[in-house]
Write a structure and sequence with these properties.
Layout (H helix, E strand, L loop, with lengths): L1 H7 L4 H9 L7 H10 L5 H13 L5 H7 L5 H13 L5 H8 L4 H10 L8 H8 L4 H13 L6 H6 L6 H13 L1 H11 L5 H11 L5 H12 L5 H14 L5 H6 L6 H14 L4 H7 L5 H13 L6 H10 L3 H14 L5 H7 L5 H23 L2 H11 L6 H12 L2 E4 L7 E4 L1 H5 L3 H12 L7 E5 L2 H13 L2 E7 L7 E8 L2 E8 L7 E9 L3 H12 L3 E10 L5 H4 L5 E6 L1
Parallel strand pairs: 3-4, 3-7, 7-8, 8-9
Antiparallel strand pairs: 1-2, 4-6, 5-6
Amino acid sequence: MKEILESLKSDQAEIRKDAILSLKDKKDEEFILLLIESLEDESKQVADAALSVLKMQGDTIFVNLMKALQHSSPKIRKKISKILLNLGNDFISNLIELAKSNTEDIQFWISEILPHFKEVSLPSLVELSDSKSMPERLCAIKALGKINHFDAVSPLIKHLSDEEWIIRKESACSLLALEEHSLNDVLKLSKNSEFDLQFWAIQILGKLDKKESKNALIEMALDKDTKVGHKQALINIFKAFDSVDFVAPLIKMFSDENWFIRKQAAEAIWEIGPDSENELVKSLESGDKNIRYWSVRVLGDLQSQYQSEKLSKILKSDKSWSVRAAAAQALGEIGQDFASEALMNALQDTSEYVRKNSSLALNKIREVQEVREESTDKWINAYTYEVFSNLKSKRKNSMLNRVKSLITDVPDFPKPGIIFKDISPLLASSHGLSDATKLFASSIKDLEIDLILGVESRGFIFGSALAQELNVGFVPVRKKGKLPGELLAESYDLEYGSATLELQKGHTTGKKVIIIDDVLATGGTAEAVVNLVKKDGAEILALLFLLEIDFLKGSERLNENRIESLIHV
């Protein structure tokens, strides 16, 4: 024993590994515990050897393995759980008994292990879920969610009516995990008249990106018998999906009898953003004045400049004074000179509210006009950058926060001293690239663009997505030696070396272009691209960046160009 202990203290992994392998025929508890401790050895080959020897011990080590589940190291507990799984169904009864203990660590690992035995452990888990002990119940409910079996659905639905909120919540989470088996039952719950059951159905369906679940949510939202609280929850879910699929049903909610629901539906559409515009325009023909009223309000809040003519017609001829007043307010929000004549005529409207809103709108337009006349272009640009760059809609802030959360720092890459901004989590997310693309498109919506130029390599990803979003062409700017044909080249220095970029000659000549890349640091790369594109005779409208590192002052290097960076650090 002494010799083995000395070997296990050796600095050489091979010696420690040989000491572990020498224990394969030892079944004494003290040797078993040495094997368990060695599972956490810094050398993978030693830890794997310990795991291999433990598996050879068979059922004689069961008691020690169960003790090891209480080890202070999560790494050891996880490895022990894998060994227990390999011991088979003979030990189910022992595991069930341990699940009834009051040791929370044991209960946690039981919830990890028992689901793998599926039908064998299912009756016991259902029984445990009805226990009087809260830890036992939670342990069993979590395990039922991992068991991937249809028979686990019914007991979980029963627990959605439990008097304890935490039990209801965990049951909902487990039903969500059982999506394949639970979807139909949850869809039935969405039609249940019991308030709590319908609430949990909404929460579960709201987490599923399924056609059936979306349809059920829409049906509930439009059902006049759905409670106000549930409608509020549904509107929040529609906002979270951030999809034009929900714009039409949200517009229908403008006719809800509850004013608060109508207002929240309008706010939700506003947060979904400009993509809602087409549906809103269609709804201007609705026979329901509430639908017309809120559609006009949202178009104004979205500053839908292309709808000024339609809003002017509504201001002149809509039969409802409230809709006409909303149109006047919307025209003021949009602020186009074009609308002044319609607003002047509306000062003679029969409704006091229409006249008042028209007057206010004219004042807004007049103020904008005066600022434009008195200010130089340079002043406007500086003022716009300083004041208005941070005045983003609630929706944009929400999207920006999601994008920010998906960008991570990797120190000392590609060389010591460099902090690499990793966008891999953003690209791996189901909404990351979509959010970034929408934000890019929104930042240049005032420009008429022919081509998007993406800079190798991460500029390719955002550039291609943006080109598709805007329905324009895409041209790559590549590193030296990657492009065929006649080329233009530009060399430059960057923060960790030097490089040369190339562009195929003639691809951008005479075109209005946007240059896009992931990060603006010192500005060396971007400056090189600008010089390269100018050589080809293109007009650069703007440079777009996902992230700008402000202290490196890259934008100062590009001060003759319009720069739009989504995130500043």
